[in-house]
């Protein structure tokens, strides 16, 4: 839930949300009790039954419906769990508060379209196929089912108060305007893309816009990356009574699958936007030119003007199941200072710490780095100094996430990149570069986030050096009717243009949402492979050379062999990436037809 | 077979070889005849039986032995072939000249250690596992078996006449000498590495050596790349009566498996050398510094002084089973001119042609581009001009192959790269760079070849722009006892150093010869994957950062995530490669301990 009301309203809403959160936790603890009633839950929380019903109704459901749904979800999770295979279906029904197994079968089939027995069998088969998913962070099936049949207790973002871009200024050119989108809780969405989000700004093709972005990892060292910064404080604010940006991820808002919190962390990036582009329609292409990228300086007086970043070697990193030294497994956070002076631009490590369990303000314990944004309590971790001593890491400032809203589903996990852009994690997307993205929904709905001070090809540990930054962009809409002969004429994927190169983005699954359907958001994690991504990059480059550069297939293959460089983009984003780089220089002497 | 004798001697030996070749072909055609005798074969070829026996004996076997071996090989190939599954074992025995199936079973078991029935079952299982090998160019099992039990009709290279380096000159420094190894039939080995090859030169650590290398693809346009060039003419000379370098590949010399010719093309690179390094012993490291790389100009008066190269999109290319346009499948050769003037260094395509069946001078028809070196008869292909029109491909001159002799087996296919170097196909191995290679055999035995004018990361179509070049190298031996604290202290793979970077070479199978044992040379083709190569590159880089740079594992992972670039080296060399690049610049300010 995103609080965008006034201070007093926010207080009231936050209190209600907190009570509802506690009610849900009580229900969760007592799902096995077949005699659980609203009256007993209300009594346990010291509120009236009527207020309880009102709270549930206020979020679009009823206590009875919610309770049954939770029981069915829990039961289905146990049916799908190989570790529960020795329990009969009746046992599972009883354990989840159903005292009549025939009734259980009936409501289960009504809910999931399969009998409990059929469902269990199907899940066994699925688990066999996707056992490689272990250790990845794809969506559990029950979460997907829950989301598909969404009756969220709390909506993603209130649309009652349509927000506005901070300010609109006439640009020098006169014709085009400049916009500025400051970062603030009401102007971000955290961990997901959605075609339903209200735009934070609307621009005309050709306009420029400055977009402030925050790294979702700022809470790894709040003193250096949040404190004193009104925008960051607004986005990260999370107390026992209030969480300014409730949803973190595209998962269920009622935090029921893993209980990690609203959105479950199925998606992690703080995205500023979306920005609507006037007249953009599906089939068009949006050119996003990056005119400038500037790190966001610290506003805390103790470090005023300095710039900091964080990098986490997390459980979703490529190395995680491969660790050599103790303790195993473990996660480590490194805090960096970003130095940009006349002589050099580099990052240097300040200190690091191993993750220790953190209790978030709502009382959830995070034994692992469940998702970025859980505040790290100073003193709860042991800081190690003299790490990467003397090493200076050259900067490659860029935005990890540049996305248009996908058309297939409403809540899309921000982690796996796809045809719509998203978490591309390609450092070539910095100042002076552009990315061309296919428009899928009216208005295009551009979101930007996941700023990186630098990253290696591969992003091996799971994150780059994550650092809040502000970008200035020019947005140019290319209408479908006017594309003939242009480089993006048949574009179906994010195409990056740097000053010197064309960079084509290949993925294990070019459009995983369409390919896997409802299961896309978990299957993509289970089936990623560089071999698949290489195949995709090859096919895209061949098509580019044939359709855009007018080569025959034989010429395209010959040129790829001798002049195109294939590289690993990332092996940590669910949908692994291989890019193909084509130098513009090759064509400098080509006669124009 | 490699002819290194005088002109008259060469004529005699070549004649004998040609007769033996024809005898073998006759045997091959009549394997099904249970009454085949040496007398009948001799009669068919118009020679005496005694001369026939002498020819077979001269190559270390006997007619009877050879005939039985060929029958068993053919029978085992049919037993292993799923397409022959409907034939009974007795039928297969009869078809191959055995008129008693009990006798067949006995000799088969004696030869292969399994009964025909057990052998067939084993091959069915193997085929299931390695069905992905289809379309790759790994060794068939029978070829491996044949080679392991080698009784080659003709040895790889006569060791009777130990060759010498062309000339040895005192270098300027006084202490170290300069050597020159001109290319010529007697100084190359084609398609394989071997610990048994006699050295062509012996150098001291610190000496420099100029090594001429030829592209094995020169016969794609003999007029531009062979004619008038005495060295190239010597290596490529192949008439109905003489083939100066007989063995092309590490396969059986009697061309029995596919009948493609001696060596079968299991390995393709013309390698100059080997060069022995005095005092080199297993456990040492040889540093091969590339001081200069110069293209080899054409000596044909029609094109005198120009430089040419060839690139083949061949059946072993990544694209081959993925072609979009007709005809399918097909192979295409592109001939390039290499331009190096003061203003620009680039390759431009001159023309291309599609491969048409070529009959080699020994009468074998090559319907596909079986291996490089089959002379393309002018007029047998249709040249297409205006290909890649106006496109200028920047040069990256380098050597695809820099190898030390492997220790595991004697004849090693030159295609899959491994711990000993070999076909690295990394364009970073050019002028100013060095590669560190672990020494496995006394003298190290360095071979250099596969010169490339340029190549893209991936080498997608199967070849680079292949172009004869001459390199000047300095060879520095690092003794095992003196390595502590050096960058190659625990080296187990080829480590490339450029002026700016460390480039670590990852492979699908870091040492496929040891990993797969006798089946290594075919299994590696069947099981290559970028995912495996990525894992290897990650592990090698972690070890480098921990052992050589003294980082903790947490530091190593953090640095890899933010500063190490993983890229695709090649997806066409059997053992696919991913490299990891570490910039030296990172460490410029690290205090020395």
Q: Average pLDDT of chain A, to the nearest integer?
A: 88
| Helical amount of chain A | 25-40%
Beta-strand percentage of chain A?
15-25%
Q: Please provide the count of β strands of chain A.
A: 27
**Radius of gyration of chain A from CA coordinates:** 25 Å
Individual helix count of chain A: 14
Biggest sheet architecture of chain A? 10 strands, mixed
Structural class of chain A: alpha+beta
Please give the most extensive interface between any two protein chains, plus how many residues each contributes.
A-B, 70 and 71 residues
User: What is the approximate shape of chain A?
Assistant: globular
* Assembly classification: homodimer
Low-confidence stretches of chain A: 1-12, 129-134, 151-167
Query: How many angstroms separate the termini of chain A?
Result: 55 Å
Q: Strand arrangement, largest sheet of chain A? A: 1-2-6-23-10-20-24-25-27-26
Can you give a write-up of this model?
The structure is a homodimer of 593-residue chains. Helix content of chain A is 26%, strand content 23%. The longest helix of chain A is centred in the N-terminal third of the chain and has 23 residues, at 7-29. Chain A has a ten-stranded mixed sheet. In chain A, strands 3, 5, 9, 17, 19, 21 and 22 form a seven-stranded mixed sheet that branches. The first copy, chain A, has a four-stranded antiparallel sheet with strand order 11-12-13-16, with no helix packed on it. The first copy, chain A, is built from 14 helices and 27 strands. In chain A, helix 1 (7-29) crosses helix 2, helix 2 packs across helix 3 and helix 13 crosses helix 14 (553-563). Mean pLDDT of chain A is 88; it is low at 1-12, 129-134 and 151-167. With 593 residues, chain A is an alpha+beta fold. Chains A and B meet through strand 13, strand 16, helix 13, helix 14 and strand 26 of A and strand 13, strand 16, helix 13, helix 14 and strand 26 of B.
């Amino acid at each position: 839930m995103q609080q965008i009301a006034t201070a007093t309203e926010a207080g009231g809403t936050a209190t209600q949300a907190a009570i509802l959160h506690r009610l849900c936790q009580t229900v969760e603890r007592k799902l096995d009790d077949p005699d659980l009633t609203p009256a007993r839950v209300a009594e346990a929380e010291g509120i009236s039954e009527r207020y309880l019903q009102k709270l549930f109704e206020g979020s679009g459901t009823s206590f009875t419906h919610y309770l049954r749904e939770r029981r069915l979800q829990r039961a289905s999770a146990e049916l799908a769990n190989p570790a529960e295979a020795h329990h009969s279906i009746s046992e599972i029904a009883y354990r989840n508060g159903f005292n009549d197994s025939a009734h259980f079968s009936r409501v289960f089939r009504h809910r999931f379209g399969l009998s409990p027995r059929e469902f269990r069998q199907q899940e066994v088969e699925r688990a066999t196929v996707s056992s490689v998913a272990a250790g990845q962070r794809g969506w559990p099936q029950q979460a997907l089912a829950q989301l598909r049949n969404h009756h969220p207790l709390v909506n993603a973002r209130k649309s009652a108060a349509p927000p506005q871009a901070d300010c609109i200024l006439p640009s020098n050119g006169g014709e085009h305007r400049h916009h500025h989108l400051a970062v603030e809780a009401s102007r971000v969405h955290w961990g997901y893309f959605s075609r339903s989000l209200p735009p934070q700004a609307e621009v005309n093709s050709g306009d420029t816009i400055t977009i402030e972005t925050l790294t979702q990892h700022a809470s790894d060292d709040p003193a250096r990356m949040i404190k004193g910064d009104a925008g960051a404080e607004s986005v990260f604010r999370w107390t026992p009574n209030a969480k300014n940006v409730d949803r973190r991820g595209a998962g269920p808002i009622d935090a029921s699958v893993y209980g990690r919190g609203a959105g479950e962390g199925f998606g992690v990036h703080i995205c500023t936007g979306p920005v609507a582009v006037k007249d953009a329609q599906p089939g068009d292409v949006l050119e996003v030119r990056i005119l400038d990228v500037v790190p966001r300086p610290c506003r805390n007086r103790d470090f005023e003007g300095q710039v900091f970043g964080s990098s986490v070697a997390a459980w979703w990193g490529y190395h995680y199941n491969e660790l050599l030294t103790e303790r195993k497994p473990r996660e480590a956070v490194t805090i960096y200072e970003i130095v940009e002076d006349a002589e050099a631009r580099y990052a240097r490590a300040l200190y690091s710490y191993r993750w220790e369990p953190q209790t978030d303000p709502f009382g959830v314990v995070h034994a692992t780095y469940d998702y970025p944004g859980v505040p790290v309590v100073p003193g709860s971790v042991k800081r190690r100094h003299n790490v990467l001593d003397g090493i200076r890491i050259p900067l490659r400032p860029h935005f990890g996430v540049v996305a248009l809203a996908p058309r297939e589903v409403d809540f899309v996990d921000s982690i796996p990149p796809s045809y719509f852009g998203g978490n591309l994690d390609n450092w070539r997307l910095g100042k002076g570069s552009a990315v061309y993205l296919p428009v899928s929904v009216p208005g295009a709905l551009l979101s930007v986030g996941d700023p990186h001070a630098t990253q290696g090809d591969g992003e091996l540990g799971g994150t780059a050096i994550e650092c809040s930054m502000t970008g200035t962009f020019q947005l140019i809409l290319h209408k479908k009717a006017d594309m003939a002969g242009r480089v993006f004429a048949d574009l179906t994927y994010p195409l990056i243009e740097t000053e010197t190169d064309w960079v084509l983005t290949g993925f294990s699954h070019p459009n995983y949402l369409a390919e896997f359907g409802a299961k896309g958001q978990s299957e993509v994690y289970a089936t990623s492979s560089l071999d698949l991504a290489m195949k995709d990059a090859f096919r895209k480059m061949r098509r580019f050379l044939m359709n855009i550069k007018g080569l025959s297939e034989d010429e395209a293959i010959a040129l790829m062999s001798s002049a195109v460089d294939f590289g690993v983009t990332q092996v940590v984003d669910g949908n692994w990436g291989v890019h193909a780089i084509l130098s513009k220089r090759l064509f400098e002497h080509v006669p124009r037809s």
